Amino acid sequence: NWKKNAKHAEAGGLNFAKLYSSKYCDYNLENVFFSVCQEESCRKAALWIHDKLIIPPAYIEETPNEDMPDDIKAIYNEAREVYKGSPRSSAALLRLCCEMLCDHLKADGKDLNEKIGDLVRKGMDVRIQKALDVVRFIGNKAVHPGQIDLKDDQVTSHSLFLLLNEIVQEMISKPKRLEGLYTEKLPEKVRDAITKRDAGIKTGT
Which of 169, 159, 120 has its CA nearest to residue 139? Predict the structure, then answer.
Protein backbone atom coordinates (compact mmCIF):
# COMPACT_ATOMS: atom_id res chain seq x y z
CA ASN A 1 0.00 0.00 0.00
CA TRP A 2 2.79 2.44 0.87
CA LYS A 3 4.46 1.94 -2.49
CA LYS A 4 1.16 2.38 -4.34
CA ASN A 5 0.37 5.52 -2.34
CA ALA A 6 3.87 6.85 -2.86
CA LYS A 7 3.59 6.60 -6.65
CA HIS A 8 0.18 8.29 -6.58
CA ALA A 9 1.33 11.08 -4.28
CA GLU A 10 4.45 11.83 -6.29
CA ALA A 11 2.28 12.67 -9.30
CA GLY A 12 0.46 15.27 -7.20
CA GLY A 13 3.63 17.00 -6.07
CA LEU A 14 4.29 14.91 -2.93
CA ASN A 15 7.51 12.99 -2.48
CA PHE A 16 7.91 9.97 -0.22
CA ALA A 17 11.51 9.33 0.80
CA LYS A 18 12.56 5.86 1.97
CA LEU A 19 13.76 5.76 5.57
CA TYR A 20 16.42 3.16 6.43
CA SER A 21 16.99 4.07 10.07
CA SER A 22 13.39 4.08 11.29
CA LYS A 23 11.92 1.05 13.03
CA TYR A 24 8.22 1.96 12.73
CA CYS A 25 7.98 4.26 9.72
CA ASP A 26 9.05 3.20 6.21
CA TYR A 27 8.65 6.55 4.44
CA ASN A 28 9.12 10.21 5.17
CA LEU A 29 6.92 12.81 3.48
CA GLU A 30 8.94 15.54 1.77
CA ASN A 31 8.07 18.66 -0.20
CA VAL A 32 5.38 19.72 2.32
CA PHE A 33 5.78 22.98 4.22
CA PHE A 34 4.04 25.03 6.88
CA SER A 35 4.18 28.80 7.11
CA VAL A 36 2.70 31.39 9.46
CA CYS A 37 1.46 34.78 8.28
CA GLN A 38 3.62 37.56 9.77
CA GLU A 39 0.78 40.09 9.90
CA GLU A 40 -0.12 40.69 13.55
CA SER A 41 -3.82 40.75 12.67
CA CYS A 42 -3.59 37.30 11.05
CA ARG A 43 -0.88 34.94 12.35
CA LYS A 44 -2.62 32.00 10.67
CA ALA A 45 -0.82 28.87 9.50
CA ALA A 46 -0.73 27.72 5.88
CA LEU A 47 0.07 24.35 4.29
CA TRP A 48 2.05 24.17 1.03
CA ILE A 49 2.97 21.35 -1.34
CA HIS A 50 6.10 22.58 -3.10
CA ASP A 51 5.08 26.13 -4.11
CA LYS A 52 1.31 25.47 -4.24
CA LEU A 53 -0.85 26.79 -1.41
CA ILE A 54 -3.22 24.06 -0.18
CA ILE A 55 -4.63 25.43 3.10
CA PRO A 56 -6.16 27.97 3.12
CA PRO A 57 -7.23 27.55 -0.52
CA ALA A 58 -5.77 30.18 -2.83
CA TYR A 59 -8.99 30.45 -4.80
CA ILE A 60 -12.18 32.32 -3.96
CA GLU A 61 -14.92 30.08 -2.57
CA GLU A 62 -17.65 31.60 -4.77
CA THR A 63 -18.59 28.49 -6.77
CA PRO A 64 -20.25 28.71 -10.20
CA ASN A 65 -23.99 28.39 -10.68
CA GLU A 66 -24.75 24.73 -11.44
CA ASP A 67 -26.54 25.72 -14.66
CA MET A 68 -23.55 27.64 -16.00
CA PRO A 69 -22.43 26.07 -19.32
CA ASP A 70 -19.35 23.88 -18.90
CA ASP A 71 -17.05 25.92 -21.14
CA ILE A 72 -17.92 29.10 -19.24
CA LYS A 73 -17.62 27.29 -15.92
CA ALA A 74 -14.04 26.27 -16.77
CA ILE A 75 -13.02 29.92 -17.31
CA TYR A 76 -14.96 30.96 -14.20
CA ASN A 77 -13.02 28.42 -12.11
CA GLU A 78 -9.76 29.65 -13.62
CA ALA A 79 -10.74 33.15 -12.48
CA ARG A 80 -11.33 31.73 -8.98
CA GLU A 81 -7.83 30.24 -8.91
CA VAL A 82 -6.04 33.51 -9.72
CA TYR A 83 -8.38 35.79 -7.74
CA LYS A 84 -6.30 36.21 -4.60
CA GLY A 85 -3.01 36.55 -6.43
CA SER A 86 -4.26 38.78 -9.25
CA PRO A 87 -7.73 40.37 -9.01
CA ARG A 88 -7.02 42.11 -12.31
CA SER A 89 -6.50 38.80 -14.13
CA SER A 90 -9.58 37.41 -12.43
CA ALA A 91 -11.72 40.32 -13.63
CA ALA A 92 -10.45 39.96 -17.19
CA LEU A 93 -11.35 36.26 -17.21
CA LEU A 94 -14.82 37.02 -15.87
CA ARG A 95 -15.32 39.51 -18.69
CA LEU A 96 -14.50 36.63 -21.08
CA CYS A 97 -17.14 34.55 -19.26
CA CYS A 98 -19.59 37.39 -19.82
CA GLU A 99 -18.92 37.41 -23.56
CA MET A 100 -19.17 33.62 -23.79
CA LEU A 101 -22.48 33.77 -21.93
CA CYS A 102 -23.84 36.31 -24.43
CA ASP A 103 -22.79 33.96 -27.25
CA HIS A 104 -24.53 31.10 -25.45
CA LEU A 105 -27.69 33.23 -25.37
CA LYS A 106 -27.43 33.74 -29.17
CA ALA A 107 -26.68 37.45 -28.95
CA ASP A 108 -25.68 39.22 -32.18
CA GLY A 109 -22.96 41.86 -32.41
CA LYS A 110 -19.32 42.37 -33.24
CA ASP A 111 -18.30 43.09 -29.64
CA LEU A 112 -19.60 42.57 -26.12
CA ASN A 113 -21.26 45.99 -25.97
CA GLU A 114 -23.32 45.27 -29.09
CA LYS A 115 -24.18 41.76 -27.88
CA ILE A 116 -25.59 43.14 -24.63
CA GLY A 117 -27.58 45.70 -26.63
CA ASP A 118 -29.00 42.91 -28.80
CA LEU A 119 -30.14 41.00 -25.71
CA VAL A 120 -31.85 44.17 -24.43
CA ARG A 121 -33.71 44.51 -27.74
CA LYS A 122 -34.81 40.89 -27.38
CA GLY A 123 -36.41 41.69 -24.02
CA MET A 124 -33.67 41.11 -21.45
CA ASP A 125 -34.45 42.61 -18.03
CA VAL A 126 -32.73 45.97 -17.55
CA ARG A 127 -31.32 44.79 -14.21
CA ILE A 128 -29.46 41.96 -15.97
CA GLN A 129 -28.27 44.45 -18.61
CA LYS A 130 -26.76 46.57 -15.82
CA ALA A 131 -25.04 43.52 -14.31
CA LEU A 132 -23.61 42.54 -17.70
CA ASP A 133 -22.35 46.07 -18.30
CA VAL A 134 -20.63 46.15 -14.91
CA VAL A 135 -18.73 42.93 -15.71
CA ARG A 136 -18.02 44.19 -19.24
CA PHE A 137 -16.67 47.57 -18.12
CA ILE A 138 -14.62 46.48 -15.10
CA GLY A 139 -13.23 43.43 -16.90
CA ASN A 140 -12.19 45.61 -19.82
CA LYS A 141 -10.45 48.09 -17.52
CA ALA A 142 -8.59 45.15 -15.99
CA VAL A 143 -7.12 44.45 -19.42
CA HIS A 144 -6.53 48.14 -20.20
CA PRO A 145 -5.80 49.85 -16.86
CA GLY A 146 -6.79 53.50 -16.63
CA GLN A 147 -9.94 54.49 -14.82
CA ILE A 148 -10.00 51.54 -12.42
CA ASP A 149 -6.99 50.04 -10.64
CA LEU A 150 -7.74 46.44 -9.70
CA LYS A 151 -4.23 45.48 -8.66
CA ASP A 152 -5.14 45.27 -4.97
CA ASP A 153 -8.93 45.50 -5.21
CA GLN A 154 -10.30 42.06 -4.34
CA VAL A 155 -13.67 43.49 -3.28
CA THR A 156 -14.47 44.77 -6.78
CA SER A 157 -13.27 41.56 -8.40
CA HIS A 158 -15.29 39.50 -5.92
CA SER A 159 -18.45 41.38 -6.88
CA LEU A 160 -18.02 40.21 -10.49
CA PHE A 161 -18.28 36.56 -9.41
CA LEU A 162 -21.56 37.33 -7.67
CA LEU A 163 -22.89 39.27 -10.65
CA LEU A 164 -22.02 36.54 -13.15
CA ASN A 165 -23.78 33.91 -11.05
CA GLU A 166 -26.81 36.20 -10.77
CA ILE A 167 -26.88 36.66 -14.56
CA VAL A 168 -26.80 32.87 -15.09
CA GLN A 169 -29.53 32.49 -12.47
CA GLU A 170 -31.84 34.93 -14.27
CA MET A 171 -31.02 34.04 -17.88
CA ILE A 172 -30.63 30.23 -17.63
CA SER A 173 -31.72 28.77 -14.28
CA LYS A 174 -35.12 30.46 -13.94
CA PRO A 175 -36.23 29.84 -17.56
CA LYS A 176 -35.07 26.23 -17.20
CA ARG A 177 -37.20 25.72 -14.08
CA LEU A 178 -40.23 27.39 -15.65
CA GLU A 179 -39.91 25.30 -18.80
CA GLY A 180 -39.63 22.18 -16.66
CA LEU A 181 -42.84 23.02 -14.78
CA TYR A 182 -44.64 23.86 -18.03
CA THR A 183 -43.66 20.53 -19.60
CA GLU A 184 -44.22 18.38 -16.51
CA LYS A 185 -47.45 19.89 -15.17
CA LEU A 186 -49.40 20.66 -18.34
CA PRO A 187 -50.74 17.79 -20.47
CA GLU A 188 -49.61 17.71 -24.09
CA LYS A 189 -53.11 18.58 -25.35
CA VAL A 190 -53.16 21.69 -23.18
CA ARG A 191 -49.72 22.74 -24.41
CA ASP A 192 -50.83 22.25 -28.03
CA ALA A 193 -53.90 24.42 -27.41
CA ILE A 194 -51.73 27.14 -25.89
CA THR A 195 -49.38 27.00 -28.90
CA LYS A 196 -52.33 27.42 -31.27
CA ARG A 197 -53.71 30.27 -29.17
CA ASP A 198 -50.38 32.13 -29.21
CA ALA A 199 -49.98 31.55 -32.95
CA GLY A 200 -53.41 33.13 -33.45
CA ILE A 201 -52.41 36.16 -31.37
CA LYS A 202 -49.29 36.70 -33.48
CA THR A 203 -51.17 36.48 -36.77
CA GLY A 204 -54.18 38.48 -35.52
CA THR A 205 -56.68 35.70 -36.18
Answer: 159
